[in-house]
Design brief:
The protein is α/β, with parallel strands linked by helices and 176 residues long. Helix content is 31%, strand content 17%. Strand 1 (32-36), helix 2 (42-55) and strand 2 (58-62) form a beta-alpha-beta unit. The two termini are 30 Å apart.
């Protein structure tokens, strides 16, 4: 107890934190996938890769020539990450839906679910993230099962892709 009668704050050690974490599956189960399929900035991919590790998700990225280097630079954990390489984003989304995955798009759209109301993913789910400026391409919008919107009160129209993706991944994983 402190002098004011409140319990003393004890900072948890790395060993404490490791012991309290949920156990990570030994391999990719594909239950939660972040899909920044139209990326513009490599730094966002590195940030999303770290978030995927934190929530036990995988990352699906296009086969752009600069993406492997961006992922290597962003992988501060220095161990292999779960990455799915996507050739044609639209065909990949179509095949994923046909295989039974739930496709959630992060976009400003009518009938969008507010982030606070987005339920935890109870089935294999893909969180689709659009281009930093253009959003999710119109031809991909019909491939979404759900659209989630992140409410904002500031003057900007949207958040950075890595930040938006991280918020949605934490919500889908049941951590928020």
């Amino acid at each position: 107890m402190t002098a004011a009668g409140r319990p003393a704050v004890r900072v948890r050690t790395r060993k404490d934190l490791r012991g309290e974490r949920r156990r990570r599956p030994p391999r990719c189960l594909g239950h939660l996938i972040a899909a920044p399929l139209w990326p513009m900035h490599g730094a966002n991919l590195g940030t999303l890769l770290r978030t995927c590790d934190a929530v036990g998700a995988c990352l699906a990225v296009p086969r752009f020539p600069w993406v492997p280097e961006a992922l290597d630079r962003g992988n501060t954990l220095r161990r292999p990450a779960c990455v799915h390489w996507v050739g044609d984003p639209l065909r990949w989304l179509e095949r994923s839906r046909t295989a039974g995955l739930h496709v959630v798009g992060v976009e400003l759209a009518e009938e969008a679910v507010r982030l606070a109301d987005l339920p935890m993913a109870r089935m294999p789910t893909i969180a689709v993230l659009g281009h930093e400026r253009e959003g999710i391409p119109p031809e991909a919008l019909d491939l979404l099962d759900t659209v989630v919107e992140i409410p904002m009160i500031g003057t900007g129209a949207s958040l950075n892709v890595a930040v938006a993706g991280s918020l949605v991944l934490y919500k889908l994983a049941g951590f928020a």
